[in-house]
Amino acid sequence: MLFRNLNCSFLGLLGVISFLAFSSVNGAGADPLALLRINNNQSLEWQLLDPASGETTSVSDAFGKVGNHIIFGQLTSTSGGPQLGTLADDGGNGVTWSTISRQGEVINQFTFGSSSDTFFVGADFDGNGLVDPALVRTEGGRLEWEARLDGFVSPPGTTTMTSYGRKRERSKFFYANLFGANDWIGVVRKQRKNGKTYRVLFLKDLVHGDARRVRIRGKLPAGVRNRPLPVASSNGRDNLVFTKQLSNGGTRLTFVATNGRVLSTSDISGNGTVVVGDFEESTAGEEVGVQDGETFTIVNPMVNTRATLTIPDGILVDSININSFESDDSGSGSGSGSGGGGGSSGTYQCGGTPGVCGCNFLDETDGSKTGFIYKRVSDTFGGIVVVLPNPCGRHTRAVVTLDSSCREIHTLNDNGYANPDATGDRHHFKEYDGTYTGQWYKQNYGSIILKLEGTDACYRIDNPATSRID
Q1: Domain shared by 365 and 419, yes or no
Q2: Residues 334, 406: contact at Cβ < 8 Å?
Q3: What is the pLDDT at residue 90?
Q4: CA distance 445 to 464
Q5: pLDDT in tens, 139-169
Q6: What's the structural domain count of the chain?
Q7: How many Å apart are CA 419 and CA 417, to the nearest integer?
Q8: Judging by DSSP bridges, how do beta strands 305-310 and 142-148 pair with one another?
Q9: Is residue 344 part of a domain?
Q10: 60 and 172, same structural domain?
């Protein structure tokens, strides 16, 4: 799932649920939606929603609390429907995973990982139908993967580990079942050949060690997110969907087949939460839905159908979750966390003054002319430009623009290092899409916030139409 419209000051407490997708409950029929609400005492209320009828079923009045991450899926059994769960940061004691049944009874608890890791839940790496809890951490310049096969069952199965991907690809990893037997891990890379740039899916079987590549054939829209969502087809394999937020407030969904061929593109008027699941019994495979308030629009990529449902207010939660206690690796908002347990150094601290959106705000007008720079228009691409001084710049993985309510607007492109000051080359981020100029931000949002992912820092730009700020 992809959060867009929820207040980031709230998310900073709850924890970002970066991607969620729905798994079929019993192999037939429409999937339920899980709805989460916050009680006055900061505990979490859980319900299941039938999207077709609008009926809800209570699961628990109080399980977990604000600050937890949320999990949902076939955790302990392939029958009887999905269970719910939470991830809680216990500081130096690690991260505690807790699960409950659909009747609200606690099933299992175990400790796995530390707050500096990125957790993902929903993948079935051994192909037996049960979710395998997993995490990604960085060591040196590499991504290190660890999964506990059938880890929600007591006793759990074996632990499998591998090194795959580069550190800078932490925001680009995903998993999907493209080959029919089980989920594989993957990263999205760009490659050039004969003067043309292609996106390539690099994939690895976490259990058996096989590796494959799939080149995307066809054009993806500029500015799409580099972390696709898996969308199950009727043949037992996953297609992929890449998402993009449009300047008019809509969402563009681009579907890619298992062989890498671009299937279709659909534009949705809403720009809220993006989820995947089997919501229509009458159509084969899964649909992609966009939640915008109480409106839920769903699209089936294979038959090109569209429907709009009305749902109660709440936070949608289901089986594919990729999140971190320290920062949001997807570039879809602000993460939360108390810093490094398990020997981790935690989120890099850049200093600044505490404020909204879970940010410490840095001084954007230091007057040095050699530190931070903001420009309303790029000389080469047309969109805004952000230049970050060190040491904070070295630790920034992405720059995300937020509105005054802490809702994500867009993610800038990493343009490398240049223009040194006394601290060395500074980190440049630019809007490659010329739509996102300072004037556009001013007209549509007034002031904006620049969130530096990978750190605890933000800059506030009161007037984005200003020619230059430094």
Answers
A1: yes
A2: yes
A3: 82
A4: 9
A5: 988 999 999 999 999 778 899 999 999 988 8
A6: 2
A7: 7
A8: unpaired
A9: no
A10: yes
